[in-house]
Structures are given as structure tokens and as C-alpha cells.
Amino acid sequence: MEKRRMMLFPAPVRTAKGTFWGYIDKKGEFAVQPIFQYAMDFQVNGLAVVEVNGQYGIINEFGKFVVKPSYWSISDFEEGRAIVVNDKGSFVMNEQGKLLTSKPYTYIRTYQESRAVFSIMKNNTSLYGYLDLSGKEIIPAQYQTANNFQNMTAIVQSVERNFKLIDQKGAVKQTYNYPFVGMQGEGFLAFKEVDSYDAKFGVMTLAGNVMIPPTYSGFQPFQNGLAVVNVAEDYTNKFGVINIEGKYVIQPIYNDVNLLGENRIAVGKAIQEDEPFRGSMFAVATSRGALLTDFEFTQVLPYEKGFASASNNESTFFINRSGKVVQSLPILKGSGTLSFEGDIIKANVDLRISYYTLTGQQIWKQNTVIPLSRKYKVLEGKFRPNQNYLVYYPQVEGMQSDVLEKQVNQQLRNLSMSKESEENLANSEYTADFDIEFFKKQLLVLELHSYIYPFGAAHGMPSKVFPHIDLQTGVFYQLKDLFKENSDYVTILSAIIQEQIKTDEQYSYVFPDAYKGISPDQPFYVSEEALYIYFLPYEIVPYAAGFPTFKIPYTQLETILYKEGLFWKSFH
């Protein structure tokens, strides 16, 4: 049997039919061709999760499917097991692609110490138990909450004010009569004496002995003898770090604190003190609290073998354990992350992937020119005036008229930029990018998608628009251009969508009575065979449902399609 044990790395390529992912080798050459909608890293077992047509499967290093794309999601393998999800529920799968669980579960967490938390629904309530590595229920579903095992024990809650420490067979080792007990951290537990959101956290041992009475407004489990705590009484932050004796090694005065490993800690001061949610500038400190740098970093990731990926307002780079920028490794303009992948470096900076040798030589980067045909191409433009505003916008090349081409490109650039006022943008992050949705003959359909996130908000707001551009005339077609004049396309399309909502289960999440029909300028896009009508988040569905989209084949619109019109002829 042919074997290949080489490092392969996921890499995306933008084409006239969209963005496709494959895998390159250390020379930057494709060892697995870019045919996937998305591709994740290869794992130590030589397997990788990929996406095809919205479904996930698993391939080996030759690009051959071990598991056909048929799942909604597939987790990384832990202890030789992955959690897969389809329309029936969650299952455990081994590395050969065999399902080990005999039935679907509402939820399964990835394995830790040969156990995986699972849940079922009973009387509209979630109950939790544990599976063993064979996928069998080693501990039945009986708990209100359940944490991962650590040092062969786990914290579970059976009833109100009753938490327990159990072993891997479910035997109770200790009981805690508190309204809240947190997950383990090196033999210590956070707890609350009062059942309220703003009640303070204390710290106790696994034996139930209180080490620190309720003191903290926030507490993170111990790691390597240190725990991050918060003592703020309001919306501000006062993070610090304590040791296992409960003494401060970092005083609680910071807006952010992150444990970096290798005896290093990132401490952050608020960019704007009266609005701490805007983020922090970080310094690197020792595990004893001594500052090694100024507050000069916008981000510092955990250390690995003496190096940590970090960014400032201009660049992304590695720093050493002294907090100094490593000049011999890549320093890239923009904000993102660097990571060692074997003996090469992967960069994900300003939402773009590239790879480098350890000496900084570029091996591969994403293409910025997208060929459409021998005549036309789309170029990637970039606008980044500051770290909170990043826009990639399309620019067309190859139109016969330079004047029309300039006008088209200016409109595309304008459509990609935020419509928010300067004042609102100063209080938000904004990113925008694009993909090619459809191209045929002289019609180019682009997807311009963006995301604006107001500082301090629970979530941001996505948006997308699909310009339909005639590359010969420079016309941006509208929905009405697809139909005969006076055809009342609004009423006809509205009725078709209404019927889909009534009869198709995938639209069961539409708010009752929210759908009132479409507007004359309803957002849309076309393919060769169908028209797609979509709505923005919150219009007719919950935010989490995204952009509800309705496919309408042209065969249902024969009586109103304007097949003699320029729009139709531009791609037929």
C-alpha cells in the first residue's frame, strides 16, 4: 500500500467559480488539488476534515475520502475519536470512519481521559452523562451539568445546590452543597455561596476545604499554579493573577490578563479607560509579575518553544521570552497570527493565508488576481486605514472601455465600504471581503459581504449584496430587469416564497407573520438555472439563522421572464 507521510498544509485559491481549498507541500506545490469549499489542518493521525457542498467529510493524505461528505460538522480527533453531527444528532466516530454510538445524542463533547460528556432531552430538560471510548454509556444521563474529567475525576451537578466529584464509573467521591461549583483546575474549584449572577467566587480544594472565601467577581481555573481573577464591582475590569496560596503575583489592576505558558503572562491596559470594552494594549510579564515590555501589543498568543505570535497596530511577528521582536523570523504588515507548522511558518494575517520558511522566504500565498476568461479578470484591492477597518474590494479588468471600467470599479469600491457614519465607525470594527458567485458570458455576479461589530455589543451585524455586472456595457442589473414590463413579478415571487415557507421544513424558523412578501428591489442573485431571493438577518428569521434564501427555478417563471432583455441575454 502506498504511503505518504509528509506535512501538508491547507491553502485556498480564488477562482471564477468561487474559493476552493486544497493542500500544499513544503515547496508550495499542491499535493491535494483545491476542490473543497473548506479544508482544515491535517491531524497527527494523517486525516483532515473538509467541506464539500456544505457537508463535511474526512480525507487522508492522498485526498481520498475516508468519510464521505455527509455531516453538518466533524470535530478534531481526540483520543482517536471525533464527534460528528447530522440531521439526526451527534455521534462518536473512530479513525476508520465507523460510528461507535448506536443512537444519536443531542450533544457530545470531545473526549478527555477516555470519557465524553453527552446529553439527551427528557421532558424538555437536558440531562448529561458520559460515554466511554467504545461509545457506550458508562455513566447514564442523570446530571443537570457535567464537566470534563481531569485527573480521573469530574464535577457534576445532580440537583439544585448539590454538586459532586465523581470517578470514571460515576462513584461519588465528594459532595458540595453550593449553588455553583466550577470546573477543576489543578485540584481547586471555584464556588459561590449565593445563587445570583453577581455573587462572588471563592476557591476550595477538592476535599471541600475553603481556601479563599467568596472574593472575586470572576475566576478562571488554575493553570500551572496560577489563576486569573477579577475583582471589579461594575462593568470595568480589574484582572489579576493569584498563586495556589491565594497571593497576588499580578495585582488586580488590568483590563485583560492572559496566561501565556512558559512562565509568561500578558497584561493589558484599556485603550480607553472609560470604555474598557474597546480592548487593550498588552505588555508581557513574568509569572512573578515583573514587566518585560511596554504596553505595545494589540495581541499576544501563548508561547510555544520559546516564541509567541504577537501583533501591534502595524504588524504581526514573533516575540521571544524577553518580549523582543524576533527579527530573523517573518514580520508581516497587518494583524493576525503566526504559527510553527513543523519546519515552516503559517501566517493568517489580515484574513489571508500564506506560508514561509524559517528564514522568512515566502513559500505560498493566496492569489490576488482571479482569471474569469481570456479577456476578463478580477483583481483584489485592499483598504486598511487602521486596525479596526479592513476592506478587500473587487476591481474588474479587461472591459473594452476604460471609462466604463473605471466607473464600474469605483462603484464596486463604494459598495464594499461601510455606509456607517465616521462617528459610528470610530466605535466599531468593520471588515469586508468578496467572492465570485457566478460568471457566464458577460455577466459577473459578485458577493460583497461585510461585518460590523460595535464595541461592547453582544454580536455584530453581517451584510451582503450581490452586484450583477454586464462586463460589456457596465450596467449593474436590478431584479426588475429580469422580468417583462408590467409583469407584477413582486406578487408572483412573493407567492412562490410564501408557498415554500408553508411547505418546506427548512423554513420552519421564519417568525410567525413576519413574512409580508418581497419588495421591488429585494436582494437577489442569479445562477444559470435559478433565481435566488434572500433576506437580511432579523427581517423574517432569528439572527442565528443568517440570511434566509429561497431558490426559484426559472421554469417556474417562464411566463414573466424577459428573455429578450439585456439581463437575460448577458448570461444565456
Structural description of this entry:
Residues 480-554 form the DUF3298 domain. This is WG repeat-containing protein. It comes from Bacillus suaedaesalsae. InterPro entries: DUF3298, PdaC/RsiV-like_sf, WG_beta_rep. The chain is mainly beta and 572 residues long. It has a domain at 376-569: Alpha-Beta Complex (Actin, Chain A, domain 4). The chain is built from 4 helices and 47 strands. The strands form 12 sheets. Strands 38, 39, 40, 41, 42, 43 and 44 form a 7-stranded mixed sheet that branches. It has a 4-stranded antiparallel sheet with strand order 4-5-6-7, with no helix packed on it. It has a 4-stranded antiparallel sheet with strand order 11-12-13-14, with no helix packed on it. The radius of gyration is 27 Å and the shape is globular.
Write the layout of secondary structure elements.
Elements: E1 9-15, E2 18-24, E3 30-36, E4 38-39, E5 48-52, E6 55-59, E7 65-71, E8 73-74, E9 81-86, E10 89-94, E11 107-108, E12 116-122, E13 125-131, E14 137-143, E15 145-146, E16 154-159, E17 162-166, E18 172-176, E19 180-181, E20 188-192, E21 201-205, E22 210-216, E23 218-219, E24 226-230, E25 239-243, E26 248-254, E27 256-261, E28 264-270, E29 280-286, E30 299-300, E31 308-311, E32 315-319, E33 332-333, E34 336-341, E35 344-349, E36 352-357, E37 362-365, E38 369-371, E39 377-386, E40 389-397, H1 402-416, H2 422-425, E41 428-440, E42 443-454, E43 461-465, E44 468-470, H3 489-503, E45 524-526, E46 530-534, E47 549-553, H4 566-569
Parallel strand pairs: 40-41
Antiparallel strand pairs: 1-2, 2-3, 4-5, 5-6, 6-7, 8-9, 9-10, 11-12, 12-13, 13-14, 15-16, 16-17, 17-18, 19-20, 20-21, 21-22, 23-24, 24-25, 25-26, 27-28, 28-29, 30-31, 31-32, 32-33, 34-35, 35-36, 36-37, 38-39, 39-40, 41-42, 42-43, 42-44, 45-46, 46-47
